[in-house]
Amino acid sequence: MMDTIFFILSKVVQFCIEPLNWVIAFVLLGLLFLSLRKPHLCKRFLVLALFDLLLVGWLPASELPLRAIENLVPKATLPNDLNNKIGGIIILGGAISGEQIAVDRGEISIHSSAERVTKGFEFARKHPNLPYIFSGASGRINPRGISEADAFKQLVQEQGLNEAQAHYENQSRNTYENVLYMKPMIQELGAKDEAGQLKPWLLITSASHMYRSVKIFEKQDLPVLPLPVDYQTANRLQWTEFNLVDGAQNWHAVVHEAVGLLAYWITGKI
Known about the structure:
Helices cover 56% and strands 10% of the residues. By secondary structure, it is α/β, with parallel strands linked by helices. The strands form two sheets. A five-stranded parallel sheet has the order 5-4-1-6-7, sandwiched between helices. Strands 2-3 form a two-stranded antiparallel ribbon. α10 links the parallel β6 (201-206) and β7. The longest helix has 23 residues, at 244-266. The radius of gyration is 21 Å and the shape is elongated. The two termini are 20 Å apart.
């Protein structure tokens, strides 16, 4: 019950603090004061709405914090003999839209974090003897259709990958639950070293999501080698670029990780 409350509350907090959502609030307040015949207050809130749009659309404003988050965890140096050095491959959900679209259209859609899937496929093909786990059900409060894990299973079949090594976790709604529900699978499937310790698993997820993910795995005493993908920022900022769509996506990622890290720290999950 507490996990469900935590999940819903995190979604509500994120919605309330995303900058693009403030535009609606500022405009509504401006209209309210206009109806109350207080034009000076109306103008102030409309100016705030305009400033908010500029903040969202001017890309360096969102790229600076997002780049800092993406750079928190560098790519691990992978050993040459990967088959004998790691226990398996973990692919975190967040890129696949199964749900109602897949049911109605009969096709699985891969969205902006597609590199999680494509990189997972790459390593599954190169190392067919390693087990791999895809983890994720749905990040929605009210999920519809099929889970991400079931959608990934369909993609594995379509791509002709080794299904004998494929494993799926289809109950989790967030990163903490990803790790919690995978832990028994990792302990059962993972190879051990000479000292009897679990070998690290290769962890594939978006660069902006990697720091929080690694911290949760560490908290659960599960060793991982981070392989961040899906970078959204470059080394140089785009000082003259204005794009509301890209800016909104960047801010969404920044707020999502900030809320997640704070919530997990407060609740002792990291």
